[in-house]
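Tutorial, part two.
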Amino acid sequence: MIQDAVQRVKAANDIVDVIGGYLTLRQTGKVHKTLCPFHDDRRPSFDVDPGRQRYRCWSCGEYGDVISFVQRIERLEFPEAMDLLARRAGITWRDGDDSMQSAQKAKMLELSDWAQKQFQDSLWERQAGKAARDYLEDRGLEEETLTKFGVGWSPPGGDWILRKAQRDGLDLNVLEVLGILGRNDDRLFDRFRERVMFPIRNPRGQTVGFGGRVLPGTPTAERAPKYYNSIDSALFTKSEQLFGLDLAREEGKKRGFLAVMEGYTDVLMAHQQGISAVVATMGTALNQRHLNQLRRHTSQVVLVFDADAGGDSGVERSLGLFAQHEMELRVARLPEGLDPCDWLLNEGPAPLNKALDEAKDALTVAMDKWFPPGVVENVGSSQAGLDRVLGLLGDGGPSGSTASIKRELLVGRLARRLGLREETLWQRKQELAKAPRALDRREPRQVASSSEASIDESAMPMVEREFLAALISHPEWVAEAASLVEPACFKHPVAKGLYEAILGLLRSGQSPNAEALRPTLSHQIQAMVLRLGDMGQSNPEPRMWFNGLIEGMTRLGSRVKSANVRKELGRLAHAGDHEAALEVLRRLQESARGALNP
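Running the prediction step on this input gives:
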C-alpha cells in the first residue's frame, strides 16, 4: 500500500542527511539551521528537525518532510521524488519490496542480458530472422550498426523465449518481473512477439529493458500497438530511460551537447552517419527526469522536432523545461514531412549536423512563432502569445537560483522583442499567477492536485482547519465524519476539496490517511496536510476535540447553506423569477419542519 511505501522511503532517508546534501547545515541545539533555498533569505531562517523529521522556514512558511523537500528542490512530482529517494537508499517502493538486494539486481541484469542475446541471435538466423532483417535493411540500417546496438528479433508464436528459459533452467519469476514474460491466469507467455527488439541500456551499457517495434504487414501489426516497451521494474523506468545514452555520452562531451530524438531508428541512423551524440526517449515527451539523467553527461540538450503541429507543442513543452532547469535547451527543426532517419538516408549527415550546430534556444523559437514581423499590429494575437509564453516560464524557483536568474533574462528578452517595459511584463505575469484557478469538480481524489496557485490558509475557517487536522491525524474517524458532515458544509474551496479527497479514499476501500493522499496533492497542499497532521497529533484530548468539531462543522454547514439560499433568492429576485424564488422558500420550510419533526 502507498502509505507503507512512503513510510519505508522516509525511514531509509534521514532528513538531515538528504537536506545536508543540498545545503550547508549548522547544528543549533536540537535543530539544524541554514539559509532557506526557497526565498531570498538574508539570515538563516530554515530549520531542519531530525527528531520530528520535518523542515520549516520561519520566514516564507515552507514546511514538510524529506519527500516534500526533494519535490520542491528538484521540481519533481510525488512519484518521481519517491523514486529518487528510493534509489538513493538502494531500495524500491513500487513493488512493495523492503530492499533492492545487490544479488537480486545482479540476477535481473544477468537475465536481461541473456534475453538480449537470444533476441540478437534470432535476428541473424538465416530463415527465422529474414523478415526482420529485410525491414531493417529497407530502413537503410547496416549490419555493423545493428550489431553495435544489439538489435534483435522476437519471433511469432507465444512461447519461443519461454521454452528457451525453461531449457536453460532460468528463474521464470524474474523474467516475469522484467516484463520479458507475461502471465495470463496461471499460464506464462512471451510478451514480445513478432517484433524487432531494441535493447535499452543504462549509461554503463547494461541491458535494463527493451523496446519492441511490430513488423509491418504481419498479423501482430493488425491487432497490437506499433511499439511495446518493457514494464517498469527496479531496473527500468520508461519515463526516465534514454535509448542510446551509453553510446552517446562520450561524443556528447566532445560536442558539448546531446541531441534528443523521438525514434530508435533515428538514433541508429545518426550513429551510422557519424553523428553519435544522439539519444531518444521511450515514446514519451522529454521531462525533468530525463534532464536529471542528461545533466550527468552534458550541460546542453538539443531537441530535434518535426516542422509540424506536434513539433510546435514540443517546443512549448521544452520552453517550460528550459525556464525551470539549469540546463541549456536548444531546438533543431527538421524539414516538414521528414523524420531524422529518412533525412539522413537521403541527404547524408551534413544537413543534420548543420541543424544541430545552428539550433536556437526554445524561447527564440517560441517568439518566432508567436511574434513574427507585424505581430504588434495584431494586438489580440500578440496578447495571446505573450500570455502563453509568460505562463510557460513558471515561477523560476528561489530568488537568486539559476532558474530565477534565467527567468529574469527571458523576461528581458521578451520585453526587447515586443518593445515593452520589463515592469509591464512582470506585472502581467503576476496577474496571470493570481488569476483564480478554483478546484474543479473532477473525481474527488484528483481535486486537491489541480493547482499550485497560492493558498491562503488564514482565510480558511479555524473549525475547518481543525476538523481536517483531526481526520488526517486520526483516519479511523473518517467513516464517522462522512455520515455526519457533508462536503457542502465547507466554506473554503481548498478545505472542501481536501475533504472530498479524503472521502474518495474511504469510498475506494483505501485507508484515508495522509500518505495515501499525497500522490494526488500539489506541493502546497501536501505541506498543508503535513502541518494539519502534526497539529492533530499534538492535541492532548483528541476525542473530545473531535466531538466539538463535529458540532462546529454542523453549525457552519447550516450557515453555509443559509448563505447559499439567500444568494439564490437574491439572484432569482433580481431576475424577476418569483415563482422559482417561492419554490426555494417552500423547500426551505419543508426542510426546517423535517428538522423539527424527525
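Confidence is low (pLDDT under 50) at residues 96-100, 436-454, 591-598. In part three we will examine how such features are distributed along the chain.
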